[in-house]
């Protein structure tokens, strides 16, 4: 029993077009998506299937939009793909009710089409997710490099995480700009939160310090933990005449004394700690 | 404990992943904090070398057991242009990439065993091992 492909295709498209309400109802039931979304998709599919050239650009556009919306709502990519695939099941029921060999053969063709569209949602989903990740990386780059004022004339940059070229660029720009804006002459770069200092990180730090010096500011690098000191020495990196301190507190007191601020301890410091029970 | 695992080195992000993997394995086999930092830093240098000089490569991370002490072995390999003069490449301050020129020579000091095999046109393979004390 052979059925011409063209006839089979026509039959399934006819079935698809004629049983709109039944399909939509079953599709909504199977996928759990909103009827509005599915109706739009159905309309686009209908236009694409009825047109001579079989242009699915609109359908793809809609699917991409749907995928993006679903990424934001926190759906999994399988969920989104399943939404599309469930159309197959809905249409299969219609084809089975019809029972003709054309309808069943046509269904195989249609199901390949739906598979393609389903995979397409998967791709758009990944693309949308990747875009979010890239955006967040950029935001993080901005967020993770604050320049804070510690004292009149003293600013600090607490560095956290990986220091790559892009980060260093942002840090350096921000630091130099803040030095100008606040008229500070001392800057403390704190690397307590940098997990590993390799030659690249060291080189970036050195460049930042030299740039700050060119602007007349003095830099102190603080937050050098024992294991980092050990590694830097073994690597053979030399910080030259750059002042380094173990902690941010040391660096601050150094910068304060350099800028002529005298700290006189009060006769007695009283710290009252009171625990209250709720 | 765990089978050798291979990680790709194709982007700066991969260098970070290599560092994290090496750090967690180093902690797992009981390297001291200083030794952990040393092997992580060496891994960072060598991974970046593969990225900068060869456009990428891969690293095989292996936990060595069965000996008196556990160890961590990292094999960095790439299919890049290779190193024409290995002695020169290991010289302090020699850099072809505008760096400090301490990456390769410094890494050798950071680990217990260091082996570099390279020839022009045949890529580079660096094997480093750090033993727990």
Automatic annotation (TrEMBL), chain A:
InterPro entries: Bact_StressResp_Reg, RsbRD_N_dom, STAS_dom, STAS_dom_sf. Keywords: Phosphoprotein. Gene3D superfamilies: STAS domain. SUPFAM superfamilies: SpoIIaa-like (SSF52091). The gene is rsbR. The keyword Phosphoprotein applies. It comes from Microbispora siamensis. The keyword Transmembrane does not apply. This is Polyvinylalcohol dehydrogenase. PROSITE patterns: STAS. It comes from the Bacteria. Residues 144-255 form the STAS domain.
UniProtKB/TrEMBL annotation, chain B:
It comes from the Bacteria. Residues 34-133 form the Histidine kinase/HSP90-like ATPase domain. It holds the Pfam family HATPase_c. InterPro entries: Anti-sigma-factor_SerPK, HATPase_C_sf, HATPase_dom. Keywords: Kinase, Serine/threonine-protein kinase, Transferase. SMART domains: HATPase_c. Gene3D superfamilies: Histidine kinase-like ATPase, C-terminal domain. This is Anti-sigma regulatory factor. It comes from Microbispora siamensis.
């Amino acid at each position: 029993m052979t059925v011409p492909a063209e006839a089979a295709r026509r039959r399934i498209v006819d079935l698809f077009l004629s049983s709109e309400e039944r399909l939509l109802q079953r599709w909504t039931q199977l996928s759990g998506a909103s009827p509005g979304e599915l109706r739009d998709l159905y309309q686009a599919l209908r236009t694409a299937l009825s047109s001579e050239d079989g242009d699915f650009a609109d359908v793809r556009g809609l699917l991409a939009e749907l995928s993006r919306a679903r990424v934001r709502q926190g759906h999994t990519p399988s969920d989104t793909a399943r939404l599309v695939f469930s159309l197959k099941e809905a249409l299969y029921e219609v084809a089975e009710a019809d029972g003709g060999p054309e309808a069943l053969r046509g269904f195989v063709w249609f199901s390949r089409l739906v598979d393609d569209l389903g995979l397409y949602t998967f791709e758009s989903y990944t693309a949308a997710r990747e875009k979010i990740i890239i955006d967040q990386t950029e935001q993080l780059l901005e967020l993770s490099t604050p320049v804070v004022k510690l004292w009149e004339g003293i600013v600090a940059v607490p560095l956290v995480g990986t220091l790559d070229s892009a980060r260093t660029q942002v840090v350096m720009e921000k630091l130099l700009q803040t030095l100008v804006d606040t008229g500070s002459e001392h800057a403390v770069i704190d690397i307590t939160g940098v997990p590993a200092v390799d030659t690249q990180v060291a080189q970036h730090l050195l460049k930042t310090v030299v740039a700050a010096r060119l602007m007349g500011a003095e830099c102190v690098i603080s937050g050098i933990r024992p294991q980092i000191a050990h590694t830097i020495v073994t690597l053979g990196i030399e910080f030259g005449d750059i002042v380094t301190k173990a902690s941010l507190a040391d660096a601050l007191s150094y910068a304060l004394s350099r800028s002529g601020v005298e700290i006189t301890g009060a006769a007695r410091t009283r710290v009252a700690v009171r625990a209250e029970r709720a | 404990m765990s089978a050798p695992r291979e990680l790709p080195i194709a982007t700066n992000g991969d260098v970070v992943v290599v560092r994290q993997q090496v750090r967690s394995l180093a902690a797992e086999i009981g390297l001291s904090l200083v030794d952990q930092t040393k092997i992580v830093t060496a891994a960072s240098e060598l991974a970046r070398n593969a990225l900068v000089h060869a456009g990428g490569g891969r690293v095989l991370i292996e936990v060595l057991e069965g000996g008196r002490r556990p160890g961590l072995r990292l094999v960095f390999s790439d299919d890049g242009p290779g190193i024409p003069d290995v002695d020169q490449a290991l010289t302090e301050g020699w850099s072809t990439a505008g760096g400090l020129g301490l990456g390769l020579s410094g890494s050798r000091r950071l680990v217990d065993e260091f082996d570099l095999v390279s020839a022009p046109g045949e890529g580079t393979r660096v094997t480093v091992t750090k033993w727990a004390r």
